[in-house]
Amino acid sequence: MSASTAETAVPPAKAPKVETPFRRFVSEFCESKLALVGLIVFAIIVFIAVFAPFLSPQNPYDLAQLDIMDGRLEPGTRDGADTMTYWLGTDDQGRDMLSGIMYGLRISLMVGAGSAIIACAVGASLGLLAAYAGGRTDTVIMRLVDLQLSFPTILAALMILAFLGKGIFNVVIALVIVEWAYYARTVRGTALVERRREYIEAAQCLALPTRRVIFRHLLPNCLPPLIVVATMQIARAIALEATLSFLGLGVPITEPSLGLLISNGYEYMLSGKYWISFYPGIALLVTIVSINLVGDQMRDVLNPRLKK
Amino acid sequence: MAVYLLRRLLQSALVMLAMSVIVFIGVYAIGDPVEILISPDADQMERERAIKALGLDLPLWMQYLSFLGNALRGDLGRSFVFNEPALQLILQRMPATLELAFGAMFIALLIGLPLGLYAGLKPNSTGSKLVMAGSILGFSLPTFWVGLMLIMVFAVQLGWLPSTGRGPTVEVLGLRWSFLTWDGLRHLAMPALNLALFKISLVIRLTRAGVRETMLMDYVKFARAKGLSPARVTYVHVFKNILIPVVTVVGLELGSTIAFSVVTESVFAWPGMGKLIIDSINVLDRPVIVAYLMIIVLMFITINLLVDLAYSALDPRVRLENK
């Protein structure tokens, strides 16, 4: 993922030796403190999600560790056996909310990033094809894109899940189907300009196979806008997955994502037990905002029109 | 123009037909309604009678053809759960959804326009930076979670507003509306604000961009040079001109607002179309799912068609491109 590669390259402060496009990108990205904070926060979130089994005080999927007597405890309460503190309280099953959120982040990020990557691969390929082939292929693909984009994403996803039923895999499919069009449109726009450049002509003159021209010559030059869209779409996918899970159409109850955790707390909200819904929501919000901050800055840096 | 109109209408009809096939197959080919609708205690005779009564014994394409034939006559099947015509069920709940959507649009303009105007006129002030940061938050906040938080603050903690439901309604023109009573308005306030959240951010950004662009126009410079008061320049010359694109976009967003009301209605138990469809999906009440999707598809195709037609009427370039 571009975000993590940029992150590892962040500690510069050394005198830049040669100015490569990547170094320039990193230094320009770091101009915005807010975006840097977003990137660091996002890196921490990814870290927590990846290492949740080692970091979380409890395995929320292991029913043997749960004690129903500890259900709906307030944040900061000790558990019945006095071995641990529920810093963020417990849900109705006596599950530690902090652990639940850590594991929920895993599911949310996995679904969000997974669907974004697949949608990107599908959308970018079709977008490149449309731009490169032109003619009828272009018309058919772009008509499909128009059709897709004219329906609100939530509705299209709802429709697909109504057909397929619940499940992590089905949610990913639904998200891919509603999102590929954004990538296709973005890539086609750039590719239409790029394919008239001399290097494409040169590659064609060398009688390289079409597939090679498209993926090795055309695609790398269409990457910047694609990366920006992909970043933003991860945030959108995470939000959409949470919404679908909240509506009871997303992930199954055995593997709760953040949206489902929030949904579980809904009925206890009215009796003032706010923490079951509140904290997963904060985790969701922080994740989405940090990705959006990073995406915003990347758009500014990679947009040639905004260059000084 | 007539040819373009005809082509566009034909296209819309084709899309509608394609969607009907997708929707029908998607909903009917997956899962087995017999399992859900007929009591497991029923004997073979009862099961067969029920299957026949629901028309589930026919082959899929026969079911589709009879569905299509009926749909053209405005009959989209009977709900398995309510045992009422699905179309009627949805149309009954439509006013509630429309009320919510229009309420949200109204709030979005009421809050978004002044804030956007302020942010556009004083782009470097702290206040407008706060407004813009707030608008980013408005785009990022998950709607359903904000809804829950609104309930927590205003209904549970403060007790100012009712948490769920629609409240008393008044019948006007044969439809029941809740915004005409004080208690109904109190019920409407939170869901409408929740649904408006995203649109407020949108209106703020559109207005701000519009103001900053318009301020550089010659007619604004001229109005200033003429010695008009800044207030008059702002509210008459600038404001009127930015209102056109803003209102256009907000109008176009009506469809997506109605779609998004699915979420808000579920949070606030608002008895509209959106809540009905979620409940129907959960119990696999297929005729209602199909009818809802067909109505929404029809609505979007109509909106898109009208927009395209309006554009081509106003902008000759669009018409030429489509030739």
UniProtKB/TrEMBL annotation, chain A:
A Gene Ontology biological process in which this protein takes part is:
transmembrane transport
- How does the entry describe its membrane topology? Multi-pass membrane protein
- Gene3D superfamilies found in the cross-reference section: MetI-like
User: GO cellular-component terms in the record?
Assistant: plasma membrane
SUPFAM superfamilies (UniProt xref): MetI-like
Give TM segment ranges. 34-55, 107-134, 154-178, 274-295
Domain of life of the organism in this record? Bacteria
Q: Name the UniProt key words of this record, in alphabetical order.
A: Cell membrane, Membrane, Transmembrane, Transmembrane helix, Transport
Q: Which compartment or compartments is the protein found in?
A: Cell membrane
Q: Which InterPro entries match?
A: BP-dependent_transpt_permease (IPR050366), MetI-like (IPR000515), MetI-like_sf (IPR035906), OppC_N (IPR025966)
- List, for all copies, the residue spans of the domain called ABC transmembrane type-1: 105-295
**Family the entry assigns:** Belongs to the binding-protein-dependent transport system permease family.
Name it: Peptide ABC transporter permease
**Species the sequence originates in:** Teichococcus aestuarii
From TrEMBL, chain B:
| Gene Ontology BP terms | transmembrane transport
Instruction: Pinpoint the ABC transmembrane type-1 domain residues.
Output: 94-307
Q: Which InterPro entries does the entry link to?
A: BPD_transp_1_N, MetI-like, MetI-like_sf
What is the protein's major site of localization?
A: membrane
**Could you list the residue ranges that cross the membrane?**
12-31, 100-118, 130-156, 188-207, 242-269, 289-314
A Pfam family recorded for this sequence: BPD_transp_1
Q: Which UniProt keywords apply?
A: Cell membrane, Membrane, Transmembrane, Transmembrane helix, Transport
Places the protein is found: Cell membrane
What cellular-component terms does GO give this entry? plasma membrane
Query: Organism's domain of life?
Result: Bacteria
Its membrane topology:
Multi-pass membrane protein
Which family does this protein fall into? Belongs to the binding-protein-dependent transport system permease family.
Instruction: Please give the name of this protein.
Output: ABC transporter permease
